[in-house]
């Protein structure tokens, strides 16, 4: 192990410069481990400044470990964020994405990984929370198929080296086929194609869960109003949003869609006659009952709360609020029902969570229906306790996170310690 390296790494450094600095220093991998697990000795080479950057990042929130690797063969950074492994090994999607700065990447990874702990806990599945990012230092857009294959193979080797503490899944810009490439290198991956015995694309199930949350919320808040009288504005009609639009339409609601990708909009307008398109920068200029953010996170910050012209915010995107506590309170103060994303978009992970036990659609149908009942419970609790749905959901998530896996206990911690001992 080399001596501590003091390198000037701040949140504004680009992934490319970070990668080059590591190369200069001869560092290929490292980790930041929670002090309660190791008394400050990081895995691999010491990177004090990087250690501080991670611990200081918004969203660090007591992560058990963050592992990274700079892969010189493919010019990619691999990051694995392990938030909490009490309920099981850390599971969450692997994003394939370029970022403008390391600060942006860490913010995304840390926050999403914590949200996975919350999501897996409220879904009551026996997985902990984690997330991973594959960041090509020249961006993710122009990666040809050969390089892509090598990236996912090498990333698969990296995940294998973590001995199961993180289990990969599909996420932004990744496919079941990419998961199969990871499987060629390790056994710690889900969301495999059906042809490989997997659960494949979870999006229709995610959409189904979000739609159940819409039905339950309207039933709770306006029991005498039929859902068909509602107008649903879907932001982002990709894999999930397009199915939300179809489900809302089939239930008789008026549907509005906004997406910068015109073919996706055209497809929905053709399929669902009467549906209207809204310009992506005009989503706050139209009235609707339900606003369904289903494109990306961070859509509602302090400025947007006052601009919303809806009664409900119920969508699929992760981390819809810039600041969960502040904006969920501000939305409630405006009389807008915000359904916490991690509580209702969980079907993506539920779909693949039990893949190793075989895939049964009946399980998924029951899990989708459970979201309807859980949302009624959540809104009733919030009313009884005088809290926002977000507060109740997060309290429930934290309570369930303290439960250890009934058979394996908090095994992830033992694995992290074991990895440290082997370095
Ligand atoms: P996707 O990439 O298939 O679709 C996203 C769509 O959003 C694209 O059509 C894109 O053009 C559009 N978009 C981008 N910027 C936009 C903007 N400013 N305004 C309107 N539309 C915009 O992604 P997806 O799989 O449908 O996932 C959507 C969201 O739901 C993501 O935030 C994802 O993390 C989250 N999510 C997805 C799943 C799942 O099962 N796929 C599960 C949980 C959460």
Secondary structure: elements and pairs:
Blueprint: H1 15-25, E1 29-33, H2 48-56, E2 65-71, E3 76-84, E4 90-96, H3 102-122, E5 128-136, H4 145-161, E6 166-169, H5 176-183, H6 203-221, E7 231-235, H7 239-250, E8 254-258, H8 262-271, E9 276-277, E10 290-293, H9 302-307, E11 312-313, H10 324-333, E12 337-338, H11 341-344, H12 347-353, H13 361-385, H14 389-401, H15 411-422
Parallel strand pairs: 4-5, 4-6, 7-8, 7-10, 8-9, 10-11, 11-12
Antiparallel strand pairs: 1-2, 2-3, 3-5
Helix pairs in contact: 3-14, 4-5, 6-7, 6-13, 13-14
Residues 172, 202-203, 206, 235-241, 258-261, 264, 280, 294-297, 316-318, 345, 348 line the site of nicotinamide-adenine-dinucleotide (NAD).
Structure description:
Helix content is 43%, strand content 14%. The protein is globular. The protein has a 6-stranded mixed beta sheet, with helices on both faces. The chain is α/β, with parallel strands linked by helices. Bound molecules: nicotinamide-adenine-dinucleotide. The site of nicotinamide-adenine-dinucleotide has 26 residues, from helix 6 and helix 7.
Bound molecules: nicotinamide-adenine-dinucleotide
Uncertain runs are 1-6
Largest sheet: 6 strands, mixed
H/E element string? HEHEEEHEHEHHEHEHEEHEHEHHHHH
Computed CA radius of gyration, to the nearest angstrom:
21 Å
Q: Which structural class matches the secondary elements? A: alpha/beta
- In whole angstroms, the N-to-C terminal distance is 8 Å
Q: Which word captures the global form?
A: globular
The strand order across the widest sheet is 1-2-3-5-4-6
Give the total of beta strands. 12
């Amino acid at each position: 192990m080399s001596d501590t390296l003091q390198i000037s790494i701040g949140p504004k450094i680009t992934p490319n410069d970070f990668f080059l600095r590591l190369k200069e220093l001869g560092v290929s991998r490292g980790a930041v481990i929670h002090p309660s697990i190791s008394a400050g000795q990081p895995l691999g080479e010491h990177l004090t400044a990087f250690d501080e950057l991670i611990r200081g990042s918004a969203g660090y929130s007591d992560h058990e470990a963050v592992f990274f690797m700079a892969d010189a063969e493919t010019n990619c950074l691999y990051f694995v964020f392990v938030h909490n492994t009490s309920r099981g090994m850390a599971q969450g999607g692997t994003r394939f994405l370029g970022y403008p700065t390391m600060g942006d990447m860490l913010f995304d990874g840390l926050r999403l990984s914590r949200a996975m702990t919350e999501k897996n806990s409220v879904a009551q599945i026996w997985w902990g929370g984690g997330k991973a990012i594959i960041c090509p230092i020249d961006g993710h857009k122009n990666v040809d198929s050969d390089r892509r294959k090598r990236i996912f193979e090498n990333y698969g080797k990296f995940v294998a080296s973590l001995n199961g503490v993180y289990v990969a899944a599909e996420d932004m810009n990744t496919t079941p086929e990419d998961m199969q490439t990871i499987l060629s290198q390790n056994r710690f991956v889900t969301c495999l194609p059906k042809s490989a015995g997997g659960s494949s694309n979870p999006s229709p199930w995610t959409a189904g869960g979000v739609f159940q949350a819409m039905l339950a919320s309207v039933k709770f808040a306006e029991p005498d109003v039929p859902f068909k009288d509602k107008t649903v504005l879907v932001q982002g009609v990709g894999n999930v949003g397009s199915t939300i639009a179809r489900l809302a339409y089939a239930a008789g609601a008026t549907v509005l869609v906004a997406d910068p990708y015109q073919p996706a909009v055209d497809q929905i307008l053709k399929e669902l006659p009467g549906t209207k398109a809204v310009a992506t920068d005009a989503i706050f200029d139209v009235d609707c009952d339900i606003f369904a953010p289903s494109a990306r996170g961070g859509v509602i910050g302090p400025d947007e709360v006052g601009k919303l012209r809806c009664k409900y915010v119920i969508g699929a995107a992760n981390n819809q609020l810039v600041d969960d506590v502040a904006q969920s309170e501000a939305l409630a103060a405006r009389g807008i029902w915000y359904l916490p994303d991690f509580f209702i978009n969980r079907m993506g992970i539920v779909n693949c969570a039990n893949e190793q036990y075989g895939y049964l659609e009946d399980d998924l149908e029951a899990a989708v229906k459970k979201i309807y009942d859980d949302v009624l419970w959540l809104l009733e609790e919030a009313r009884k306790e005088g809290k926002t749905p977000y507060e109740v959901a997060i309290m429930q998530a934290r309570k369930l996170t303290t439960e250890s896996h009934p058979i394996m206990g908090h095994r992830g911690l033992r694995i992290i310690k074991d990895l440290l001992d082997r370095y």
